[in-house]
Amino acid sequence: MSAPDDLPPALYEQALGLRRQSPEGLPPGRGFDLPGSPAEARAGEATLSHKEAAAVVPGALDPLPADAAALHRRFAELGVRACHRRAVLHAVAALPLPAEQRPAARSLARQLTRTGTTVPAVTVGLALLARVGEPEDVPHVFVLGLVRSLAGPALQALDVLDRRAGAVVTLVSSVGRGELRPLVRALATADEAAVRRELTAFPAGPHLLGAGTARRIAEAARLHDLLAAHPADPELLARAGLLLVRIACAGDAPGELLAYRDAPGVYETVVGRAGLLAPTLGHHAMLLSLALSLSSGTAVLLDWPPGRRETLLAALDSLLARPAWTSLTDPVSVFDPAGGSPEAATAGVAEVDPDTAAAWRRRAGWIRRTGRRPFTGAATAGGRLRIEIVAGDPEGERAPLETRILVDGRPLVPALFPFGPAHSPEILLDEGMLRADTEPRRVRLAEAWCTEGCCGALHVTVRRDGDEVVWEDWRRPALPGSRGPAPAVPALRFDAAAYDAEITRALTDGDWSWRARRTACLLKAGLTARPELLARWDARRGWIGTGFDDPDTVKVNFWYRPGLAAGHPEGDALVFQWAVPDDGAPPEEQAAAALRRLAEEDPKHYSRVNGGTRERAEELGFAWPFDT
């Protein structure tokens, strides 16, 4: 039976036509937009609600119809539309498909993907191919993946059938225009020479290249194979290392590294050939970041042969201990705008602007503070629990500070929660959240990078039970690709004396910290002990720390409400922020000077409004700084 006359041509044919018309063979934006179905356009408000669709779609698919026309008819009668794709995907995923039914399901899936005329029907075909597809289906699924409304279900199928093709679809649908577009074009053509050229040329700053994008670039480029084909290319090797650093960045999603199947092989290649790299601060920072991941980060969880990860760490330790590398961070090296520094010589420039020179100093300081930590942490651990405070490369990381919790040598948070990093030490250690008492304490160990309200958080209850500390009653969201709740996590038990000793050691270990952050901690402690310093100005302390984009500046936030000191606050509060640049003095002196100024001068006069409302700011006589 043919499809109704008012349905448009097959979506595959429409997508194929648009691809042929495009000069690049790719959508100009983030996916082709197809004309809507006349039937759907007429339906208007008659469309099923999402709840109603979730109830009726399973019945329309069980049993599977004999052909594509029958499914089109069922969906048309029920009012299933493009907006119900999620209900369709869930229904297909839940279908029982015993072995004897798989050939028929595959045949139906191919009919739907090649001749289907509506988004719901083609979505069924793609979802079925994710379960029963074969390599011959990849070209058709790839073309459909270039359609904006079908990219998600097509990607699910391609991730099973062909990871490289799936990665290209992801990049096409998420990158659009911009700095990465030439690379995406090269990846889509699978031209190895073009891929190699664009891979080493595109800008790879942390704000442009997140963990998910970096993983998909590595998959689309077949990075492991590309490295094998070009064993003496230091530029390609350096870019491979940087991609690994980005994929492993806990500030995005720790699960991305675990999803990258070639990760162990790329680690092996980059570390094994690291001697090809010229000694520069950038290369040193990249290799040190890899070592931090291998010692206490998500890379520990990869499927390593026994002893292999330790061998890679030893190789990095040996290389970075050589004079050519250690001399890069010598504090007396000439990192000045007039040039003459090793980094300037490597970059081939005669002069360096002050901002670049400051960035080099920050990176060199980070390497000096952090350089030995990935190679000594495991040797100094004494019990089941080890806590490592890891400050990432200040010029290359999206999340520069993380409290890594290792149990029996394995990082706990990325093993249980793939959506975001463990919280900073300000939250977990400085506030005493990990201290154990007989009274149970609920602790949030990590939060999704997009906030808890979006993708959840990892919670645990910590309590003391005699001579043991117990972590129990874990709470976490469903894992990616799972329709049900996440598996239960068993309780963890630690020897109480060893646990307390490790918490104390982590609290007093400040070697990783930098001067501005130590100043911020001292300021926070001073204002906590002396709240009257702000109270006299009708203010109370807010967040105090170092700026994300400027780690050498302390940001002191405080809330202001008239009448607060007298105990009769009026109206809504305004938030102010005082920026305290690092002046090079010892942190104790800088914090003391800041506290003296707060005691003597109203901080509202040398701070700026940082929160509240425009109306309240104008009412109280302060400028509103957020005008566009």
**What gap, in angstroms, lies between the N and C termini?**
59 Å
Number of helical elements: 31
Beta-strand share of residues: 5-15%
The overall strand count is 11
Shape: globular
Q: Biggest β-sheet: count, sense, barrel?
A: 4 strands, antiparallel
Proportion in helices: 40-55%
Evaluate the radius of gyration: 28 Å
Which structural class do the helices and strands define? alpha+beta
Describe the structure.
α10 packs antiparallel against α11. The longest helix is centred in the middle third of the chain and has 17 residues, at 354-370. The protein contains 31 helices and eleven strands. The model is unreliable at 37-46 and 334-340 (pLDDT under 50). Strands 4-5-6-7 form a four-stranded antiparallel β-sheet. With 628 residues, the protein is an alpha+beta fold.
Give a short overview.
The chain has 628 residues and is an alpha+beta fold. Residues 37-46 and 334-340 have low confidence and may be disordered.
